[in-house]
Amino acid sequence: MKVLVIGAAGMVGRKLVAELLATGRVGEQTITSLALADVVIPVAPETSIPVASLAVDLSVPEVAAQLVADRPDLIFHLAAIVSGEAEADFEKGYSINLDGTRHLLEACRLAGRASSYCPRLVFTSSIAVFGEPLPAVIGDTHEHTPLTSYGTQKAICELLLADYSRRGFVDGIGIRLPTIAVRPGGPNKAASGFFSGIIREPLAGQEALLPVADAVRHWFASPRAAVGFLLHAAALDTGQLGNQRNLTMPGLAATVGEQIAALERVAGPKAVALIRRHPDETIAGIVAGWPQAFEATLAKSLGFVGESSFDEIIRIYIEDELGGQIS
Amino acid sequence: MKVLVIGAAGMVGRKLVAELLATGRVGEQTITSLALADVVIPVAPETSIPVASLAVDLSVPEVAAQLVADRPDLIFHLAAIVSGEAEADFEKGYSINLDGTRHLLEACRLAGRASSYCPRLVFTSSIAVFGEPLPAVIGDTHEHTPLTSYGTQKAICELLLADYSRRGFVDGIGIRLPTIAVRPGGPNKAASGFFSGIIREPLAGQEALLPVADAVRHWFASPRAAVGFLLHAAALDTGQLGNQRNLTMPGLAATVGEQIAALERVAGPKAVALIRRHPDETIAGIVAGWPQAFEATLAKSLGFVGESSFDEIIRIYIEDELGGQIS
Fold it and tell me: Where is the NAD-dependent epimerase/dehydratase domain (chains A, B) (predicted)?
């Protein structure tokens, strides 16, 4: 099968590509070619599978048609500008996160006019589609009232994905990713950055700032689980989905206090001592509006699997990013 | 205040315009001018209020800017192509129902760049935003999984309306209208047409076909109630809405059997005898996927009022369309 990954240079994109090339397959099917697209040229590991890398701007209408000209059987669409940037630049957010996705859907629909075409399209949505009012545990049929333009754009793309699937233009599945932790790399300015930072920095022997209270509860999956969700979605029998083309992925609900206790179990009190409480009302205010936990009943029943403890999430980080060793 | 009505030539639009001109006010505010737009030139009653009538195509990007150039304080946006047409013509549906609304929102946002501008925007959405799986009574926080492109387009516009309101570009409120009955005019080809036809035709001494079982239950409001919802939304303190900019309007849940019983009470057995049962599996199948009843708790708490019996809905039809008399 021919596979296209849009957003291949991002953190999850790179891990997905590495996994696709390592196994050479998706479900029962062998990958015959892989096309990678992003705003910067994605770099792929050496492999026997033919790989094409492209730097593209999906907000330019013609680009999507070029991407699907080769008629990929499977498309992963991970490309988006992040929440903070979509909030700061209203037009850019709508242009890339909404119009870019719509161009892709339209390119698939129009390609199907020439001759039959209906690719599997795996789209990464987000729990940012949920907003106030929120129950403590959010069910699979809860409404979407996003509190950000990013969440609005993701919610709209979910609706488009479902309608284009219902009409037979794509065979779509949208997966709402939990907050990904532990993210590799350095500290960033995302409001959610500390959820990874309070684990990652202490494991590297560095101090980490904690801007919120220990009681703050949130919803997590590891980067490895995220790649697993994408691959499972790619091979799933979508006939099981009915009209529910968009699914909340299973995650782990954990408080900051539970994160810290897990860090102590995995890396000892020396690591925990590097976490410095530094309350930040702005960040605390933003995080207070975020979802805390989900039922994710449907996704679990379809075989999507997340982590069952924050210890596991930390161990995955140590295995995948630190070569299995901590200092 | 300056008022703009887009979609002024439709059934609800005409009744809204008649009411605006009859009272000359919206809430506490006096109407100083009224602009009416539709794909055909809307006709307005004689009045002392200056009225401008325009034939426009909202799917043309520049049109929305022309409509808001006069900076109306209040915009009613009722324009849409109907469900059946949006399903038959995919591109036209998205072009008018989605892009048309987005052009209007963008025009308001861009007008606000020159100098402060944030009009009240009352948008008519639809219970078509709801789809499977559906509980028997749908709560205010139930998800939107529309089963039609029309429902998808309305659900997307709701999300845009909420985000543009959150950003301060418009002061939006979306109202999900129940199925409007009793519609004046002749029989039409809408799958929902019989809900009005089995009342309207017998009241005119004509036979009406009933394609579904008496047990079929649906959600109704009169045209008079719909106009009431629009006017109430126009004058509402939107500070009460929080992040819930889109509301399911209160309606009346009634089975076809209850409709017929109401007709008998209002117009006697002679009228009921004109209903001929003529099962149509296609229509029965479509209607089976439709919502049956809603809680509408939030809208009721905000003062929106629907009907409390189908007898009342029939009497409103007789008063407003038949001059208060039946043959």
Answer: 3-238
In this predicted structure, the answer to whether residue B133 has a pLDDT above a threshold of 90 is no
Asked if residue A305 has pLDDT above 90, the reply is yes
At the topology level of CATH, where does B2-178+221-248 sit? Rossmann fold (3.40.50)
Token couple for A25? 């397959």
Is the domain spanning A193-219+252-321 CATH 3.90.25.10? The answer is yes
For chain B, give the number of residues.
327
| φ, ψ at A76 (rounded to 5°) | -100, 125
Chain B CA closest to residue A144: B143
ipTM rounded to 2 decimals: 0.96
DSSP string, A246-308: EEEPP-EEEEHHHHHHHHHHHH-HHHHTTEEE---HHHHHHHHTS---B--HHHHHTT----S
Q: What would the mean pLDDT of B297-313 be, rounded to a whole number?
A: 98
Cβ contact, residue pair B143, A144, below 8 Å: yes
Q: Given 1.10.10.60, 3.40.50.720, 2.20.28.120, 3.40.190.10, which CATH number is that of A2-178+220-248?
A: 3.40.50.720
Mean pLDDT across chain B: 95
* Phi and psi, residue B295, nearest 5°: -75, -45
- CA A44 to CA A46: how far, in whole Å? 7
β-bridge pairing B252-255 and B217-221: antiparallel
A251 pLDDT higher than 90: yes
CA distances in angstroms from B117 to B37, B103, B169, B244, listed in the order given: 21, 16, 7, 22
Active site residues of B: 150
A117 is catalytic: no
Q: What distance in Å separates the CA atoms of residue B326 and residue A84, rounded to the nearest whole number?
A: 62
Query: Residue B299, Cβ neighbours under 10 Å: how many?
Result: 24
pLDDT in tens, B136-192: 999 999 999 999 999 999 999 999 999 999 999 999 999 999 999 999 988 777 789
pLDDT tens-digit readout, B107-126: 999 999 989 999 999 999 99
Amino acid at A303: G
Helix residue ranges per DSSP H, chain B: 11-23, 61-68, 83-88, 90-93, 100-114, 149-166, 193-203, 223-235, 256-267, 269-272, 281-288, 297-301, 310-321
Which are the contacts of B225, defined by CB distance < 8 A and separation ≥ 6?
A: B305, B306, B307, B316
The tens digit of pLDDT for each residue in A185-211 reads 887 777 899 999 999 999 999 999 999
Task: Answer for the pair A271, A318: CB distance below 8 angstroms, yes or no.
Answer: no
Work out the minimum CA distance from B65 to partner chain A, whole angstroms: 17
Question: In chain B, what are the domain boundaries?
Answer: 2-178+221-248, 193-219+251-321
Evaluate the CA torsion angle A234, A239, A241, A242 in order and state its sign.
positive
Cα–Cα–Cα angle for A186, A191, A194, nearest 5°?
Answer: 50
In B, which residues are within 8 Å of A162 by CB distance? 145-146, 152
Residues of A in contact with B98 (CB under 8 A): none
